[in-house]
Amino acid sequence: MKFGLKPRVSVLLLTCILILPIIFLVGCDGGLSATGNVYEWMDAPPDFKGDIYVDVDPPSNRIIKPLSTSRVYLFWDDPVETDFKGAFSMHAVVAPGRYMMDIRVEKEGYVTLKNQFQHNGGGLISHNISVFLTRK
Fold first, then answer.
1. φ/ψ of residue 8, rounded to 5
2. Which of 31, 40, 53 is nearest to 129 (CA)?
3. Contact 67/38 with Cβ under 8 angstroms?
4. 132 in Cβ contact with 50 (< 8 Å)
5. What is the C-alpha separation between 106 and 14, in angstroms, rounded?
6. 30 and 123 Cβ atoms separated by less than 8 Å
7. DSSP 8-state symbol, 97
8. What tens digit of pLDDT does each residue of 5-47 get?
9. Are the C-beta atoms of residues 40 and 48 closer than 8 Å to each other?
10. CB 37, CB 66: distance < 8 Å
């Protein structure tokens, strides 16, 4: 008397055992990508602290210059530093769902800005951020 599975059944069973856990694990995480630029707002009104725009176009009538070496923080992350064009980019794996994300931007000699924005998680979500800092 022989005991055992037919080859076709054993391959199917092995495939299910190996692939299904991978599918469930991959489906549990979302992604966050944030790219943008930090500028000095040269013609800001007196005593104005600055602006952070997330996923909307900022006004185009400002006199600005890119700010290198600014530090950009998202709520859990180590900061990323802007390059010589004032540009930054950060990517992270985050829990899926909708929640408020904190952002902070600082550079020595400039007013530190803090703000929040809505992250609508589920898959890879990319945010476009424009920051306008003013001198202290």
1. -65, -40
2. 53
3. yes
4. yes
5. 53
6. yes
7. S
8. 566 656 666 566 666 555 454 555 667 788 999 999 999 998 8
9. no
10. yes
